[in-house]
Amino acid sequence: MSGQTRLMWDEGVTRYDFGPSHPMNPVRLTLTRKLVESFGLDRWLDVVAAPPLGDEALRLVHDADYVEAVRHASAQPRDADEWMGLGTVDTPAFAGMHEASALIAGQSVRGAEDVWRGAAAHAVNFAGGLHHAMPRNASGFCVYNDPALAIARLLELGAERVAYVDVDVHHGDGVQHAFWDDPRVLTISLHEHPRTLFPGTGRPEETGGEGAAGRAVNVALPAGTSDAEWLRALHAVVPELLAEFSPQILVSQHGADTHVEDPLANLTLSVDAQRAAAESCHDWAHRHAEGRWLALGGGGYAVVDVVPRIWTHLVAIAAHHPIDPAAEVPEEWRHAVYALTRQPGPRRMTDGRRPAWRDWHADGYDPANAVDQAILATRRAVYPTHGLLA
């Protein structure tokens, strides 16, 4: 296996653009790429551009008539009228939508292929992580479900155990749906409780379909959860399940919308906690998945202060050259931020926190703590099916 990490990047992914008033501004991708360059990380990376996915590959997850509907809306966006989730407020049609969406999916699938075949140890596509798209409809800003497509391609290549860990603030519903009945895929989603956030799914009792009991794992956290409790929940559930499942490859989704400054959700994390989660996923890939790791982006709508820093940390960790959280942000990048957004950029790669968490096994369950209640609900729902004690 090559020790080099692949950064999957094609400037064309920035054409995934729902318009100037939409929260998913592609400037977040441009600024992340520029920050990666400003820290000199390219010298530790293979920067690779993959072609868009063709229709046959898209049909690994999406129905043919849906792909055709996307293509039609892409060619004639003014005609899209809330059909198959397209033309909605969340996912408005835009010219070139099919091509941009297929290009993002192409980066994730090629990254998965390269890691599986040993051409790279790790691969990162921070433009990816569009985890809400369903086989027959767009949803939640997502047109094609690149994480699910990457996993489906891994299965096609012969993978027998794929683990997916999703730390976006929203439930990874589209990926869960795609592999609901497939025991070869373990999906774990840590997210804000569906009572208070889109898409309204991801309760702990959602544990997988017939023949795949326990393969869907959901940790639904109360609004307001912050660093220490969020990391406690992550570590109270994920590593034991990965150790038992013994995946051949880990796919992780790193939505930046758990951050306290994110305008669309209600968790209160720092950049530092999100960086700690990326470090843990890297460690788990080496510990439990033969070192194979595909890391994807996801949500994140604080597009200047938050998203570029989190995903640059992710890229640096994957490249085995992590950035000191106390490092100053390069001045050249801050100039680029102002030129593109007329906003000042952050000055350091940290929010000034030092994340720590109480270990579940060492400290035990606190019945008065809402996060501990969420952890226990998940463990009780899925651990017995894995032969583990809740």
UniProtKB/TrEMBL annotation:
Residues in coiled coil: none
Domain Histone deacetylase as annotated: residue spans: 22-316
Gene Ontology biological-process entries: acetoin catabolic process; epigenetic regulation of gene expression
Example GO molecular function: histone deacetylase activity
Pfam families hit by this protein: Hist_deacetyl
Keyword set, alphabetical order: Acetoin catabolism
Alphabetical list of InterPro entries matching this protein: AcuC (IPR003085), HDACs (IPR000286), His_deacetylse_dom (IPR023801), His_deacetylse_dom_sf (IPR037138), Ureohydrolase_dom_sf (IPR023696)
Pathway(s) served: Ketone degradation; acetoin degradation
Stated family: Belongs to the histone deacetylase family.
Name recorded for this polypeptide: Acetoin utilization protein AcuC
Native source species: Streptomyces hoynatensis
